[in-house]
Each structure stands twice: as C-alpha cells, then as structure tokens.
Design a protein that fits this description.
Aspartate Aminotransferase, domain 1, three-stranded antiparallel sheet, about 35% helix, globular, alpha/beta, Rossmann fold
Length: about 425
Amino acid sequence: MRLRFLLLVILCLFSSFSFGQASPKIMLGIDVLEQMKFSPLKYKRVGLLTHPAGVNRYGKSTVDILYRAKNVKLTALFGPEHGIYGDEKADVPVLDKIDRRTKLPVYSLYGKYRKPTPQMLSKIDVLVIDLQDVGARSYTYISCMLRAMEACFENGKEVMVLDRPNPLGGLKIDGPMLDMEFKSYVGMFQIPYVHAMTIGELARFAKNTRGAMEITSNYQRHGKLTVIPMRGWKRSMLWSDTGLRWRPTSPAVPTFSAAVGYSMTGLGCQLGGFQHGYGTTKPFRLLTFPNKTPEQIKAYLDKYRIRGVSFFPAKAKSLDGKKTVNGLYVSISNWSVLRPTELSFYLMKLTCVFNGGNIFRYAPKNQALLFNKHTGSKEFWRELSTKGAYTDIDYFIRKWQAQNVAFKKYSSKFYIYK
C-alpha cells in the first residue's frame, strides 16, 4: 500500500513537471483537431508537412499524435528547410529519408524538389500542414506551404492547415511589400515584411487571391482547403501572451526573443559588416561591427531616434562556449510604437558611415539580387547604392506605411480571428 502511494506521488510530480502547473491559454489547431477526434481525416490517407516546432500545446509532436490516433492513417511525412527533425543547416539541401520513429517515408521539400511531386502525393488523400512561422515574409516555411498547396490542388489532393499563432501578434504590419519581380523562396507572398497573419490566414489569402499561386485559376479556385483554427487566440497576443513554450523553429531561432529579433535585424545584417549575434546565445539581438565598440554603435543609433527600441552594451557566449562576444543588445522599449523593420534600414545607412563610403555601390550583382529578394523590392537598393549615408529612410517608411494600410484592408478579409 505504501509503495502504491509512493508511486502515485511520483506520477503526480512527473505530470506536473511535464505539463506545467497551468495549461496554456490557447488551443492550437492540432489540439482542436484532436478534440474533434480527427473526424475530418477519417477514411483518408494522410500526409503531414511539419517540423520539430509542430507540437500540441503540451509539447507533444504532431507526428506522434497523428501516428498513434486510431482513426488516422498516416502514410507519408514531408519536411521543410532544416528537415523534419530541425537539425539541418540553413540553405543546405535536405535528402529524403525514413523517419526513425514511424518508419514512414520523409519527403524533403528543401532538396531536389521544393514542390511535392505527383509520385510523393500518390500515397495520400490529404496533406496536413503544421508549421510554426515567425511572422516575417522571408522565413521559408510559408513558401514551403504555398508550394505544397499548389501541388496538392494540381493533383486533386486536399490541404488541411493546423493553425498556430503569429509570434508577433495579429496587429503589427510593417516594412516593404514584395514586388513580384523578386518573388522567390525567401518571399513568395505579395505581403509586407511583417504581415500580422497566422499561417492559416496566409493559406486562405493564397487560396483566394488572384495570382497568388503559380497554377491555373481553375486549380486554385477548386482546390480544397480546410483550416483548423485555434481557440482562445486573439490578434493582440504576442507569443509571450499565449502561455505556450517556444520550440525552436530552426537552429537560428531557438527562442521567442530571436524570432522578434529576426524581423528587426535580419535585413540590416545581410551586407556591409553588421552582425546580429547569429552563432551566439543572443541571435538576432546582439549587434556588432568590425573595429567599433558597442558604445560607438550606440552613439550613432541613438541619434536616429528609432521608435520603440533602446540599446545597451551586452555580452554573449558563442554557441560552442569558447568565446565571449561584446555587442550592443537591441531591447524593445515600446512594442506598440515599434516598427520592427526600421532598425535594419538604419543599420544599412550606418554601414556607409562606418565604412567611410558607399560600399553598396560596388556590391556584386548576386549579392544585390539576394538582398532585393529578401527586402522584396529594388527601390530601396537603388536609393542606398546611389546615396549611401544620405539615404532618406523616413521617405521609405512613409511609403511603406501607406502600402501597409492598403494591405491590412485587403488581408483582413481572410482573418479568422477578428
């Protein structure tokens, strides 16, 4: 009897440790689907496109949930950039493999193919997509989703998106729109850089926006899309408001802090010398520049009076623990007035100051093209490469804000959460 009581106590403690003392405030799409007893998937062969951040609100893998569900026939897995295990490096092709847990085939959508082939799709009736996005256009998971949707619609397969939070919330829209001339895998949606939509809303946007998909209008119109919405999520919620534990969406974004930083410094550190802490314990938040102290960088950035952010010198360890990096930490002082992408464009302006000339004017064409693909437009590059340190950032901010207002009016038609 005493032994049974002791085992019960240990079990209770383990449960408390595993699930936390309080449940998360929201139910994710996978939680809602499970509550529905997976009825929309009954009698169908199911494919799953996901990654390690594809978990339910208690951290259990969507792969395991669907594989173990009695009335779900999971027949194939699909992996985005970084692979289904999340252990592949950025920009490195990923090979097909066999999943070690389920023994199911894992088809890579970041290798020989970016779009599922008819042969891959022959094993399924419906493709379930459970990908955690970070709210910035250049993060490739939404491009992966779009390509998968196109292939499914062309091949008569259903698409089901399990919705997840936009970590940056559903209110803040910021940065340049994508010029379709620069449509690429780091920008396939004609949306602002920070778009305020959940991945389910983006799927609805793609399905119902003319020209958003590279398939015939007939396939786009008649393709079947189901979005399983969250419960309890509000547009005002940042990730930190959800009660959910952050799971690394990729090796470079191990924390929610890094996800916010991605939208703030990612563009500004592509060219010119600024680094944003990648490879340290403060990725996308720790600014450094060759031969400049954190105090020197801060003195210049403070002059620009960028709203909603403040800067202070900080240290971070390299991921191997062998080196300490001194840099300038980017802190958010007022989220409500912050324009996340603004800092990146001032960093490029400051690069010209620190280099004593306009280094962008002489950048190789391939680097300029990659930059324009991420930014989404060549207009800023044209101005920067001509005027350098004299680039009028305010002009572009005003222009982008006007575009953002128009985008919000259109995109709100596809909002699931009002």
